[in-house]
Amino acid sequence: MSKFKNINTALIHGGISTDARTGAVNVPIYQTSTYQQDGLGKMRGYEYTRTGNPTREALEALIAELEEGYAGFAFASGMAAITAVLSLLHSGDRVLISSNVYGGTFRVLDKIFQHFQIYYTIANTADLNAFEQEITPDVKAVIIESPANPLMTVTDIQAISAISHQHDLLVIVDNTFMTPYLQKPLTLGADIVVHSATKYLGGHSDVVAGLAVVSTKELAEKIAFIQNSTGGVLPPFDSFLLIRGIKTLGVRMDRHVQNAEKTAAFLKAHKAVKQVYYPGLKESQGYSVNQKQARNGGVMISFELYENYDIQKFFESLKLIMLAESLGGVESLICHPSTMTHASIPADIRKQVGITDGLIRLSVGIEEIEDIIADLQQAIAESEVM
Ligand SMILES: Cc1ncc(COP(=O)(O)O)c(C=O)c1O
In which residue ranges of the chain is pLDDT below 70? Predict the structure, then answer.
């Protein structure tokens, strides 16, 4: 539980927000690898930065408070956070993954964890019956993204958590797309939340970082041990940048969502657009579930143009919106999932889960909405094949 009633205040004053020793209103960057000890076994709370660092600790306390968890952990990237969490599993275990999770999550399971006899099954977590059917005795965990990347498929986190707990599964939610400002999976029954903090939490496309928040002391002890043993920790400077980004999360997200809603409405009404995937649209899959578990539909939109529009030409015609991997920065970013973020998923699986070669994913920035829409409008016009 946060000590603040309102998340906008918690974003700024949550966790450890000042420096007790000097009164500095920001936690300094403790750029040190080690700490002097006063005698054998006499430490002042820190011994080595892989194990603990005050700047990282301030960030970890902040994200734990925002997600309403027991403890937080900061890693060198979202993938490092996911890898640390998956390291809770043992050889012979199996994990269920939502059918359109981030390509890197799929890849680490498919290409790394399989070497250690940790297996995965792709499950349709948006369909509760189909999901339950996939729970075999070796299944020990489930990883959900809601909305899931890149088709914005919504999963009922509370229902999946309830079913999973009947089978003693660990419920892991990647909350990158929503952030605790829009959705708090631990309050819906999940056990662990992970983030690519590179995205909205950092918010400025200038830091790569990952976070994990756990719901219990027991999980906290295990993840702390894995974090220290495997060592993919977030450096002090990057921890500072992330704290700085999180302070403005609320105002950024409000503006991002406002722009996303207008962009989704524009795309939906456009004659060139075959399909729009945005959980904020009433007719979208999972709209009511998303309304129940999140503040709104978030910022990410995917869409497809009709065949008489050349998507290569569309991408090349954009003047303001940048073609780039990643999302969540103040600037609008666009990508082509099948050749970029989801290229590590084999073509047959991409096809099976609906990630077509015509799919376009847009992270709507906080620029003036008129400018975003005008850029999309002119690029669509340019890309029309006569
Ligand atoms: C939903 C999601 N989870 C995890 C990751 C991996 O995070 P990182 O790139 O910080 O390692 C990404 C990256 O794009 C992502 O979009």
Answer: none
| 78 Cα: distance to centroid of ligand 1 (angstroms) | 5
What are the domain boundaries of the chain?
Answer: 7-247, 250-383
Q: Rounded to 5 degrees, what angle do the CA atoms 41, 213, 49 make?
A: 30
Q: Which atom of ligand 1 is nearest to the CA of 198?
A: 10
Tokens of 284: 């979208």
Whether 141 contacts 172, CB under 8 Å: yes
81 CA distance to ligand 1 middle (Å): 10
**3-state DSSP call for residue 376?**
helix
**pTM of the model as a whole:** 0.96
pLDDT digits (tens, 9 = 90+) for 34-69: 999 999 999 999 999 999 999 999 999 999 999 999
Is residue 174 part of the annotated active site? The answer reads yes
CA–CA dist 136, 138 (Å, integer): 6
Q: Is 102 a catalytic residue?
A: yes
Task: Name the H helices within 281-368.
Answer: 287-293, 311-317, 347-353
| Residue 292 designated active-site | no
Half-sphere exposure of 75 (CA within 13 A, CB side): 27
Written out in words, the top-level CATH class of the domain with range 7-247 is alpha beta
* Rounded-to-integer distance, Cα 354 and Cα 151, Å: 8
* Sequence-ordered list of residues with C-beta below 8 angstroms from that of 129, at least 6 positions apart, any chain: none
Q: Out of 140, 184, 199, 247, which one is annotated catalytic?
A: 199
Nearest to 84 by CA among 61, 117, 112: 112
102 CB under 6 A from ligand 1?
Answer: yes
Ligand 1 atom 12: residue of nearest CA: 196
The secondary structure element, H or E, covering residue 221 is helix 217-230
Residue 99, pLDDT score: 84
Closest CA to 18 of 10, 9, 27, 8: 27
Fold of 250-383: Aspartate Aminotransferase, domain 1 (3.90.1150)
Q: Is 272 helix (H, G, I), strand (E, B) or coil?
A: coil
DSSP annotation of 112 reads I
What confidence score (pLDDT) does residue 55 get? 98
